[in-house]
Write a structure and sequence with these properties.
Helix content is 56%, strand content 0%. It has 278 residues and is mostly helical.
Length: 278
Protein backbone atom coordinates (compact mmCIF):
# COMPACT_ATOMS: atom_id res chain seq x y z
CA UNK A 1 0.00 0.00 0.00
CA UNK A 2 1.33 3.45 -0.90
CA UNK A 3 2.44 5.93 1.78
CA UNK A 4 -0.32 8.35 0.76
CA UNK A 5 -2.96 5.67 1.17
CA UNK A 6 -1.56 4.71 4.56
CA UNK A 7 -1.83 8.32 5.74
CA UNK A 8 -5.37 8.58 4.40
CA UNK A 9 -6.27 5.34 6.15
CA UNK A 10 -4.87 6.60 9.46
CA UNK A 11 -6.98 9.76 9.22
CA UNK A 12 -10.06 7.76 8.30
CA UNK A 13 -9.53 5.37 11.21
CA UNK A 14 -9.81 8.30 13.60
CA UNK A 15 -13.36 8.94 12.36
CA UNK A 16 -14.59 5.36 12.20
CA UNK A 17 -17.18 3.95 14.56
CA UNK A 18 -16.54 0.92 16.71
CA UNK A 19 -19.00 -1.80 15.66
CA UNK A 20 -21.10 -3.51 18.30
CA UNK A 21 -20.64 -7.22 19.01
CA UNK A 22 -23.74 -7.99 16.94
CA UNK A 23 -22.42 -5.98 14.01
CA UNK A 24 -18.99 -7.57 14.28
CA UNK A 25 -20.57 -11.02 14.29
CA UNK A 26 -22.58 -10.22 11.16
CA UNK A 27 -19.40 -9.08 9.42
CA UNK A 28 -17.50 -12.18 10.56
CA UNK A 29 -20.25 -14.37 9.14
CA UNK A 30 -19.90 -12.59 5.80
CA UNK A 31 -16.14 -13.24 5.78
CA UNK A 32 -16.73 -16.89 6.64
CA UNK A 33 -19.35 -17.51 3.95
CA UNK A 34 -17.57 -15.66 1.15
CA UNK A 35 -13.99 -16.71 1.97
CA UNK A 36 -13.93 -19.30 -0.83
CA UNK A 37 -13.91 -16.57 -3.49
CA UNK A 38 -10.59 -15.27 -4.76
CA UNK A 39 -9.44 -11.89 -5.97
CA UNK A 40 -9.98 -11.45 -9.72
CA UNK A 41 -6.89 -12.11 -11.83
CA UNK A 42 -8.24 -9.81 -14.54
CA UNK A 43 -8.92 -6.07 -14.52
CA UNK A 44 -11.91 -5.15 -12.37
CA UNK A 45 -15.19 -3.94 -13.84
CA UNK A 46 -14.09 -0.29 -13.67
CA UNK A 47 -12.90 2.50 -15.93
CA UNK A 48 -9.23 3.34 -15.37
CA UNK A 49 -9.20 5.96 -18.12
CA UNK A 50 -11.01 8.63 -16.13
CA UNK A 51 -12.81 7.07 -13.13
CA UNK A 52 -10.47 4.92 -11.05
CA UNK A 53 -6.76 5.26 -10.47
CA UNK A 54 -5.01 2.30 -12.10
CA UNK A 55 -2.76 1.82 -9.06
CA UNK A 56 -5.81 1.48 -6.80
CA UNK A 57 -7.39 -0.94 -9.24
CA UNK A 58 -4.30 -3.15 -9.16
CA UNK A 59 -4.07 -2.93 -5.37
CA UNK A 60 -7.65 -4.15 -5.04
CA UNK A 61 -6.63 -7.34 -6.85
CA UNK A 62 -3.23 -7.79 -5.23
CA UNK A 63 -3.41 -6.56 -1.63
CA UNK A 64 -4.87 -8.78 1.10
CA UNK A 65 -8.58 -8.11 1.40
CA UNK A 66 -8.29 -6.67 4.91
CA UNK A 67 -5.83 -4.04 3.68
CA UNK A 68 -8.30 -2.52 1.24
CA UNK A 69 -9.42 0.91 2.41
CA UNK A 70 -12.47 3.10 2.02
CA UNK A 71 -10.55 5.00 -0.67
CA UNK A 72 -10.29 1.82 -2.77
CA UNK A 73 -14.00 1.15 -2.49
CA UNK A 74 -14.98 4.78 -3.01
CA UNK A 75 -13.26 4.84 -6.40
CA UNK A 76 -14.44 1.32 -7.21
CA UNK A 77 -18.07 2.17 -6.44
CA UNK A 78 -18.11 5.54 -8.18
CA UNK A 79 -16.44 4.26 -11.35
CA UNK A 80 -18.35 3.59 -14.55
CA UNK A 81 -19.47 -0.03 -14.49
CA UNK A 82 -21.34 -2.67 -16.46
CA UNK A 83 -25.12 -2.81 -16.13
CA UNK A 84 -24.79 -6.42 -14.92
CA UNK A 85 -22.05 -6.97 -12.38
CA UNK A 86 -19.63 -9.94 -12.25
CA UNK A 87 -20.91 -12.05 -9.39
CA UNK A 88 -17.66 -13.59 -8.17
CA UNK A 89 -15.92 -10.21 -8.16
CA UNK A 90 -18.64 -8.75 -5.95
CA UNK A 91 -18.67 -11.80 -3.69
CA UNK A 92 -14.94 -11.50 -3.07
CA UNK A 93 -15.13 -7.83 -2.08
CA UNK A 94 -18.48 -7.89 -0.26
CA UNK A 95 -17.25 -8.89 3.23
CA UNK A 96 -14.74 -6.05 3.26
CA UNK A 97 -17.41 -3.63 2.02
CA UNK A 98 -19.67 -4.73 4.89
CA UNK A 99 -16.72 -4.43 7.28
CA UNK A 100 -16.06 -0.83 6.28
CA UNK A 101 -19.75 -0.01 6.14
CA UNK A 102 -20.20 -1.25 9.71
CA UNK A 103 -17.59 1.30 10.77
CA UNK A 104 -19.28 4.21 9.01
CA UNK A 105 -16.71 4.54 6.22
CA UNK A 106 -17.58 6.61 3.15
CA UNK A 107 -17.85 4.22 0.18
CA UNK A 108 -19.56 6.47 -2.37
CA UNK A 109 -20.46 10.15 -2.66
CA UNK A 110 -24.14 9.17 -2.19
CA UNK A 111 -25.19 6.86 0.64
CA UNK A 112 -27.98 5.35 -1.44
CA UNK A 113 -25.48 3.96 -3.97
CA UNK A 114 -23.07 2.23 -1.58
CA UNK A 115 -24.42 -1.23 -2.54
CA UNK A 116 -25.41 -0.48 -6.13
CA UNK A 117 -22.94 -3.04 -7.49
CA UNK A 118 -24.46 -5.72 -5.27
CA UNK A 119 -27.91 -5.01 -6.67
CA UNK A 120 -26.64 -5.23 -10.26
CA UNK A 121 -25.73 -8.91 -9.96
CA UNK A 122 -27.92 -11.31 -11.91
CA UNK A 123 -30.83 -13.02 -10.19
CA UNK A 124 -29.66 -16.30 -8.70
CA UNK A 125 -26.07 -15.14 -8.25
CA UNK A 126 -26.16 -15.75 -4.51
CA UNK A 127 -26.83 -19.07 -2.82
CA UNK A 128 -29.43 -19.39 -0.08
CA UNK A 129 -26.68 -19.26 2.54
CA UNK A 130 -25.04 -16.22 0.96
CA UNK A 131 -28.35 -14.39 0.70
CA UNK A 132 -29.10 -15.17 4.35
CA UNK A 133 -25.79 -13.59 5.42
CA UNK A 134 -26.49 -10.48 3.34
CA UNK A 135 -29.99 -10.13 4.79
CA UNK A 136 -28.70 -10.68 8.33
CA UNK A 137 -26.11 -7.93 7.94
CA UNK A 138 -28.74 -5.52 6.61
CA UNK A 139 -31.03 -6.16 9.57
CA UNK A 140 -28.27 -5.70 12.13
CA UNK A 141 -26.98 -2.56 10.43
CA UNK A 142 -30.44 -1.00 10.20
CA UNK A 143 -31.45 -1.91 13.75
CA UNK A 144 -28.17 -0.54 15.14
CA UNK A 145 -28.65 2.72 13.27
CA UNK A 146 -32.21 3.16 14.53
CA UNK A 147 -31.21 2.96 18.18
CA UNK A 148 -29.77 6.45 18.30
CA UNK A 149 -30.53 9.64 16.41
CA UNK A 150 -28.28 12.66 16.08
CA UNK A 151 -30.84 14.79 17.93
CA UNK A 152 -30.02 12.83 21.05
CA UNK A 153 -27.15 13.93 23.22
CA UNK A 154 -23.78 12.40 22.31
CA UNK A 155 -25.32 10.19 19.62
CA UNK A 156 -23.07 8.69 16.96
CA UNK A 157 -24.12 8.91 13.32
CA UNK A 158 -24.52 5.29 12.25
CA UNK A 159 -26.27 6.26 9.02
CA UNK A 160 -23.27 8.11 7.48
CA UNK A 161 -25.06 11.45 7.27
CA UNK A 162 -28.16 10.04 5.58
CA UNK A 163 -31.56 9.47 7.13
CA UNK A 164 -33.29 6.14 7.65
CA UNK A 165 -35.04 6.29 4.28
CA UNK A 166 -31.67 6.74 2.54
CA UNK A 167 -30.45 3.58 4.24
CA UNK A 168 -33.54 1.64 3.23
CA UNK A 169 -33.05 2.79 -0.37
CA UNK A 170 -29.39 1.78 -0.17
CA UNK A 171 -30.44 -1.74 0.76
CA UNK A 172 -33.21 -1.80 -1.85
CA UNK A 173 -30.73 -0.79 -4.57
CA UNK A 174 -28.52 -3.58 -3.24
CA UNK A 175 -31.27 -6.09 -3.96
CA UNK A 176 -32.14 -6.61 -0.29
CA UNK A 177 -35.76 -7.03 0.79
CA UNK A 178 -37.19 -4.28 2.97
CA UNK A 179 -39.94 -6.22 4.75
CA UNK A 180 -37.80 -7.47 7.70
CA UNK A 181 -36.28 -4.01 8.14
CA UNK A 182 -39.64 -2.24 8.18
CA UNK A 183 -41.10 -4.88 10.50
CA UNK A 184 -38.22 -4.28 12.91
CA UNK A 185 -38.81 -0.52 12.76
CA UNK A 186 -42.42 -1.00 13.83
CA UNK A 187 -41.35 -3.10 16.80
CA UNK A 188 -38.38 -0.95 17.85
CA UNK A 189 -38.99 0.68 21.22
CA UNK A 190 -35.96 2.97 21.38
CA UNK A 191 -36.57 6.74 21.27
CA UNK A 192 -34.01 6.86 18.46
CA UNK A 193 -36.21 4.75 16.19
CA UNK A 194 -39.11 7.16 16.73
CA UNK A 195 -36.90 10.18 16.07
CA UNK A 196 -35.65 8.60 12.84
CA UNK A 197 -39.26 8.05 11.78
CA UNK A 198 -40.15 11.69 12.40
CA UNK A 199 -37.03 13.21 10.87
CA UNK A 200 -36.98 11.09 7.69
CA UNK A 201 -40.72 11.44 7.21
CA UNK A 202 -40.69 15.20 7.63
CA UNK A 203 -37.98 15.84 5.06
CA UNK A 204 -38.62 13.06 2.56
CA UNK A 205 -42.27 12.03 2.61
CA UNK A 206 -45.06 13.86 4.39
CA UNK A 207 -44.99 17.13 2.44
CA UNK A 208 -45.95 15.39 -0.80
CA UNK A 209 -46.99 12.03 0.66
CA UNK A 210 -44.50 10.51 -1.76
CA UNK A 211 -40.87 9.55 -1.24
CA UNK A 212 -38.76 12.54 -2.26
CA UNK A 213 -35.37 11.20 -3.25
CA UNK A 214 -33.92 11.51 -6.74
CA UNK A 215 -32.43 8.01 -6.53
CA UNK A 216 -35.92 6.60 -5.99
CA UNK A 217 -37.50 8.31 -8.99
CA UNK A 218 -37.12 5.22 -11.18
CA UNK A 219 -37.75 2.76 -8.35
CA UNK A 220 -41.55 2.35 -8.24
CA UNK A 221 -41.39 -0.74 -6.02
CA UNK A 222 -39.46 1.14 -3.36
CA UNK A 223 -41.72 4.18 -3.59
CA UNK A 224 -44.90 2.12 -3.31
CA UNK A 225 -43.54 -0.06 -0.50
CA UNK A 226 -42.62 2.99 1.56
CA UNK A 227 -45.83 4.84 0.77
CA UNK A 228 -48.01 1.91 1.81
CA UNK A 229 -46.01 1.42 5.01
CA UNK A 230 -46.11 5.08 5.97
CA UNK A 231 -49.78 5.64 5.19
CA UNK A 232 -50.97 2.48 6.94
CA UNK A 233 -53.41 3.61 9.67
CA UNK A 234 -52.12 1.12 12.24
CA UNK A 235 -48.51 2.15 11.65
CA UNK A 236 -49.37 5.84 11.96
CA UNK A 237 -51.24 5.25 15.21
CA UNK A 238 -48.36 3.23 16.61
CA UNK A 239 -45.78 5.92 15.89
CA UNK A 240 -48.07 8.68 17.14
CA UNK A 241 -48.21 6.91 20.52
CA UNK A 242 -44.43 6.49 20.51
CA UNK A 243 -43.99 10.19 19.79
CA UNK A 244 -46.25 11.12 22.70
CA UNK A 245 -44.12 8.96 24.98
CA UNK A 246 -40.82 10.68 24.06
CA UNK A 247 -38.87 12.39 26.81
CA UNK A 248 -38.13 15.75 25.20
CA UNK A 249 -35.52 16.59 27.84
CA UNK A 250 -33.14 14.13 26.19
CA UNK A 251 -33.43 15.76 22.76
CA UNK A 252 -31.17 18.61 21.77
CA UNK A 253 -33.23 21.62 20.75
CA UNK A 254 -31.26 23.04 17.85
CA UNK A 255 -32.16 23.95 14.29
CA UNK A 256 -32.46 20.59 12.55
CA UNK A 257 -31.60 21.94 9.10
CA UNK A 258 -28.75 24.23 10.14
CA UNK A 259 -30.24 27.32 8.47
CA UNK A 260 -31.64 28.88 11.62
CA UNK A 261 -35.16 28.83 10.22
CA UNK A 262 -36.60 27.60 13.50
CA UNK A 263 -37.39 24.02 12.44
CA UNK A 264 -35.80 22.21 15.32
CA UNK A 265 -36.61 18.70 16.59
CA UNK A 266 -39.66 19.86 18.58
CA UNK A 267 -41.19 21.64 15.60
CA UNK A 268 -40.54 18.67 13.31
CA UNK A 269 -42.00 16.23 15.82
CA UNK A 270 -45.10 18.40 16.27
CA UNK A 271 -45.54 18.73 12.52
CA UNK A 272 -45.22 15.00 11.83
CA UNK A 273 -47.50 14.13 14.75
CA UNK A 274 -50.23 16.36 13.30
CA UNK A 275 -49.79 14.76 9.88
CA UNK A 276 -49.93 11.14 11.04
CA UNK A 277 -52.74 11.78 13.50
CA UNK A 278 -54.88 13.45 10.83
Amino acid sequence: MSTILKLEQEKMNEKLLKPSSAMSQAVEQAYAVFKKYRAPSYMLDVCISCCMDDVLEKEMRCLPLLQLTARHFYEYNTSAKSEVQPGNEIKYFLPRMFDLLSQGAELHHSTELYLDRLGRCEAGTFSVQERAVIDAFALVFFSEGLRRHHWQEQASNHFMGGNAFDILLMFHLGGIGLEPLLAHWLEAESPGATLHYANAGYWDFWKAREIENAFADDRPVFRETMKSWLLDAHHRDLFAKKMLALDMSTIEQHSACGCGAGMGPKEILDSVFDLIAD
